[in-house]
Amino acid sequence: MVSLLLTIFLVQLAIHLVNSIGVTAISELTWTLYNKLPTPTSADAQKTSRQRTELLRLKKELASVSAQDDFARWAKLRRQHDKANDEYNKTTATLQASKTKFTTAVSSVRWAGMNGLRLFLLYWYSRAALFWIPREWLPGWVEWILSWPRAPVGSVSVQVWSLACAGVIGMVGEVVMAAWSLVMTGQQERQAKELNMDANGKETPKSRKDL
What we know:
- The protein is mostly helical and about 210 residues long.
- About 75% of the residues lie in helices and about 0% in strands.
- It has helices at about 1-20, 25-35, 40-65, 70-125, 140-145, 160-195, 205-210; strands at about 130, 155.
- It has a two-stranded antiparallel ribbon with strand order 1-2.
- Mean pLDDT is about 85; it is low at about 200-210.
């Protein structure tokens, strides 16, 4: 059952990572990587990027031209801008429709690969004993809880092991995030202190006052 123990742990870890990073962020990253490959939408994605760059250029150039001083040039740029904007909106709409379908498919695969797999394992191995507890180590009622719902009494069930993995992963995740926050805060404080130092390495009156 060692492989099953590890599988359940990895599934719970993957679920925790997805929930911590965020489904939206993962979907956006997956979509970006998908368009880097020679896929049906990669051409539209590259076209949209070029159109966006051209549209920004036209906007900047249009803003630099006065309609009163040079109306002919301004009108020409305006027509080019409107045409580029229409083409950009059409390409973006097509790409957005493809993105919606892609996100739905990825979400389905992600759910089946993590939550679906977890539910299947919990059901399929609900009667299995992942490992046994030495006899008379724990009271009978504790052994019954650890074997809940259908594993043999005296063993640890797959449901209890899954809950234990989720709890431990959650606590470790909180500790890691807290440590990371402390490290980042310390770096920001050191950078702020360095900014208050003069060129000779001496503290400015403002930094001494703060101390």
